[in-house]
């Protein structure tokens, strides 16, 4: 059972950003001040090829040392970019291959994340050929707003379908901050606040966090047969699994389904997919019970969106993860459960 109970002890975390120590527009202190002003409780400065430490009093939040290195050559003849968090020594920047850099980051007690796979034109063979990294950047703000290559869900699902344990991290990769197109405060993780960096690194390694560009998850349970989600109002919830398996619940189709079920002729045509569809409305809150042929769902929603969702059924294969998106397309990604 994978479970998250998000409360006031959880904080927003920025895991990838740059300063004037490499190619960022702001000084280390200005970067720290920026994220503090946006209510972040976790910050990792990851300048290119170097570890930046001269920035801010750590009492103002958790700070992870880190860096970004560029190594090797992919199938498309592009280098791999690797973010190393929790490392104090930049020696991994002097190694020749991406695998050597990952191994060095791990041996130093840090965590290795593959940066912006789509921006780097990385394909499945590139990512499957490396071992020991904790995950990939499922969303990169800078790559999105600059060249529309910020998302990496295709690469993520490919790795998960192959059996790899791979977490998804949403990041900024900020350079400009306040210069349009704005590349800061666009992607982050939510994680339980820790008293020391080592505990934060462990939490990031074990997947006990979620990523977002907007929506907030309140509670989440996932197992082989059951998913229970509570969140801020969202327009669409995707349950993504292997090989075309999974479910999607969105407000438009949900309303259309409830409307169609009331019409006898349409209900008869839907009998191949649903045993029953029921809905109760109380204080402008709708609770819908959907009894599908292979699954059952309970959806609680209002005019603002879906706020609770429960699904039961043996319909997922190999893995399952959840995406929740609001009306603006802002999305939260949970980490996957690998199924037996």
Please tell me the CATH architecture of the largest domain by its name.
Alpha-Beta Barrel
Number of strands: 22
From the spread of the alpha carbons, the general shape counts as elongated
Strand content: 35-45%
Order of helices and strands: EEHEEEEHEHEHHEEHEEEEEHHEEEEEEE
Q: The CATH topology of the largest domain, please?
A: TIM Barrel
Query: Which superfamily, in CATH terms, is the homologous superfamily of the largest domain?
Result: Metal-dependent hydrolases
Low-pLDDT runs of 5+ residues are: none
User: How would a textbook summarize the main sheet?
Assistant: 10 strands, mixed
- N-to-C CA distance: 12 Å
Number of helices: 8
- The top-level CATH class of the largest domain is Alpha Beta
* Percent of residues in helices: 10-25%
Short description:
The chain is α+β, with helices and mostly antiparallel strands and 340 residues long. It folds into 2 domains: 7-213, TIM Barrel; 218-338, Double Stranded RNA Binding Domain.
Mind explaining what this structure looks like?
With 340 residues, this protein is an alpha+beta fold. The protein folds into two domains: 7-213, Metal-dependent hydrolases (TIM Barrel, Alpha-Beta Barrel), CATH 3.20.20.140; 218-338, Double Stranded RNA Binding Domain. It contains eight helices and 22 strands. It has helices at 28-37, 98-107, 124-128, 141-147, 153-161, 197-206, 251-261, 264-269; strands at residues 2-5, 10-14, 40-44, 62-64, 66-71, 80-85, 111-114, 135-140, 167-171, 188-192, 209-212, 217-222, 226-234, 236-241, 246-250, 274-282, 285-292, 296-302, 305-312, 319-325, 331-334, 337-338. The longest helix is centred in the C-terminal third of the chain and has 11 residues, at 251-261. The radius of gyration is 21 Å and the shape is elongated.
């Amino acid at each position: 059972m994978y479970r998250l109970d998000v409360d006031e002890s959880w904080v927003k975390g920025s895991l990838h950003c740059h300063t004037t120590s490499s190619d960022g527009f702001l000084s280390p202190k200005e970067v720290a001040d920026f994220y503090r002003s946006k209510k972040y409780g976790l910050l990792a400065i990851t300048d290119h090829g170097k570890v930046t430490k001269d920035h801010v009093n750590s009492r103002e939040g958790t700070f992870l040392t880190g860096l970004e290195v560029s190594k090797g050559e992919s199938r498309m003849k592009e280098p791999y970019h690797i973010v190393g968090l929790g490392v104090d020594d930049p020696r991994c920047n002097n190694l020749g291959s991406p695998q050597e850099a990952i191994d060095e980051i791990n041996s130093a007690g840090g965590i290795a994340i593959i940066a912006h796979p789509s921006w780097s034109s990385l394909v499945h063979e590139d990512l499957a050929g490396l071992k020991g990294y904790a995950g990939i950047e499922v969303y990169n703000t800078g790559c999105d707003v600059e060249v529309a290559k910020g998302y990496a869900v295709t690469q993520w699902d490919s790795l998960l379908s192959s059996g790899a344990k791979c977490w998804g991290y949403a990041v900024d990769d900020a350079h400009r901050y306040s210069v349009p197109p704005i590349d800061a405060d666009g992607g982050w993780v939510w994680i339980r606040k820790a008293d020391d960096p080592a505990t934060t690194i462990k939490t990031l390694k074990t997947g006990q966090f979620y990523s977002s560009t907007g929506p907030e998850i309140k509670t989440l349970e996932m197992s082989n047969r059951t998913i229970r989600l509570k969140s801020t109002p969202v327009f669409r919830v995707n349950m993504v699994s292997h090989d075309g398996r999974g479910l999607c619940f969105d407000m438009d189709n949900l309303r259309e389904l409830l409307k169609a079920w009331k019409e006898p002729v349409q209900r008869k045509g839907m009998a191949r997919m649903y045993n029953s569809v029921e809905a109760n409305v109380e204080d402008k809150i709708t609770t819908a019970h959907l009894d599908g042929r292979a699954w059952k769902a309970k959806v609680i929603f209002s005019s603002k969106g879906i706020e609770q969702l429960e699904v039961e059924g043996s319909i997922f294969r190999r893995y399952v993860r959840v995406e929740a998106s609001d009306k603006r397309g802002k999305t939260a990604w949970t980490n996957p459960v690998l199924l037996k």
